[in-house]
Design the sequence.
């Protein structure tokens, strides 16, 4: 993990934000730098409305006086800048290390241009060294855990400060080790069909660009359509 690479990627990503747009604000230590930069742009007169992907991001945006709007009052988001835990050459992602995958995926699903920012450590040949975060309703945590083992997934209930981790929606997160994933799209489809899973952290066909900091350079990788 390299903080300067995160900063460089974030500074590049904010050039995607234009006046008058609705902007999705991601969650995590990389998105933090983009939100901070957008805050400075707002202070200098940029007019946008933003949708935060977590309560932590909402607080950060409020601190920077970034005007917020309600996702239920809009139909599309022009551009979203968010981080990722891993990405591959097809711009398939694992997200949810920060626990915000549900709102992040909802926001991504109505975003025109989804820009992912990352340091170079996030680029992988095959997804799966980072365990796939899966948001489950607490009632179903063990039910889902057993169903995941049928897919060769070893699930651990996420904890924080010695307590079970609770998401912004009051759910739990299972961090699931599937080993290296040969076909992330097929796994995502299988997870889509498990009752009790609210959402999973495999983001397939959602990223339009990944901006990755590499040393003091920044590489912009566009999705192949
Ligand atoms: O998906 C996320 C939060 O749910 C984050 O974008 C992801 O965990 C990357 O975080 P960071 O930029 O801190 O490495």
Sequence:
């Amino acid at each position: 993990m390299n903080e300067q690479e995160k900063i460089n990627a974030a500074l590049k990503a904010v050039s995607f934000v234009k006046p008058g747009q609705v902007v999705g604000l991601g969650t995590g230590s990389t998105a933090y730098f983009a939100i901070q930069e957008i805050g400075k742009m707002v202070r200098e007169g940029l007019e946008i409305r933003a949708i935060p992907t977590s309560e932590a991001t909402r607080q950060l945006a409020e601190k920077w006086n970034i005007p917020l709007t309600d996702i239920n009052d809009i139909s599309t988001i022009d551009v979203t800048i968010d981080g990722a835990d891993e990405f591959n050459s097809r711009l398939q992602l694992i997200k949810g290390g920060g626990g915000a995958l549900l709102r992040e995926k909802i926001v991504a699903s109505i975003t025109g241009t989804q820009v992912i920012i990352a340091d170079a450590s996030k680029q992988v040949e095959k997804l799966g060294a980072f365990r796939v975060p899966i948001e489950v309703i607490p009632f179903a945590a063990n039910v889902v855990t057993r169903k995941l083992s049928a897919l060769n997934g070893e699930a651990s209930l996420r904890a924080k400060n010695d307590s079970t981790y609770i998401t912004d929606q009051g759910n739990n997160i299972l961090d699931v080790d599937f080993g290296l994933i040969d076909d992330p799209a097929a796994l995502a489809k299988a997870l889509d069909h498990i009752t009790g899973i609210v959402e999973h952290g495999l983001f397939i066909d959602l990223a339009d660009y990944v901006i990755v900091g590499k040393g003091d350079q920044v590489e912009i990788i566009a999705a192949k359509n």
